[in-house]
Amino acid sequence: MKPHQMHKVDLTTIEGSGDFPCPSCGVKISPEDETENVYTILDTKMKGHSLEELVIQCNKCESKIHLIGFLASSPPSPK
Ligand SMILES: [Zn+2]
């Protein structure tokens, strides 16, 4: 049994403000929450100037969650 599970959440499948429950413990996680009370940002992956993937860790259950779908959620701005 692994102490730290890895989950993947696609933000394009989330409706509303982007909040989603932790896949492991169910605590409410908001990508726009910058206080890091609920989760800690471990890594960010950029593609050009856009955020491609965000790796966070739930502070409650310590699960690692990979957030994807940022590119699809924001239309490309014309040059
Ligand atoms: Zn959790």
Neighbour order of strands in the largest sheet: 1-6-5-4
H-E string: EEEEEEH
Determine Rg (CA atoms, Å). Answer: 13 Å
Oligomer: single chain
- Give the amount of beta strand, in percent: 35-45%
Give the helix proportion (percent range).
Answer: under 10%
Instruction: Give the overall shape.
Output: globular
Ligand roster: zinc ion
Uncertain stretches of 5 or more adjacent residues:
none
Question: Gap between N and C termini, in Å?
Answer: 49 Å
Q: Number of DSSP strands?
A: 6
Helix/strand-derived class? mainly beta
Largest sheet: 4 strands, mixed
Number of helices: 1
Number of domains: 1
Compute the average pLDDT: 86
Features:
79 residues; 5% helix; 41% strand; four-stranded mixed beta sheet; single chain; globular; mainly beta; binds zinc ion; two-stranded antiparallel ribbon
Task: Describe the structure in your own words.
Helix content is 5%, strand content 41%. The strands form two sheets. The protein has a four-stranded mixed sheet with strand order 1-6-5-4, with no helix packed on it. It has a two-stranded antiparallel sheet with strand order 2-3. It has one helix and six strands. The longest helix has 4 residues, at 70-73. It is mostly beta strands. The chain has one domain (6-73). The model has no long low-confidence stretch (mean pLDDT 86). The N and C termini lie far apart (49 Å). The structure holds zinc ion. Residues 22, 24-25, 27, 58, 60-61, 63 line the site of zinc ion.
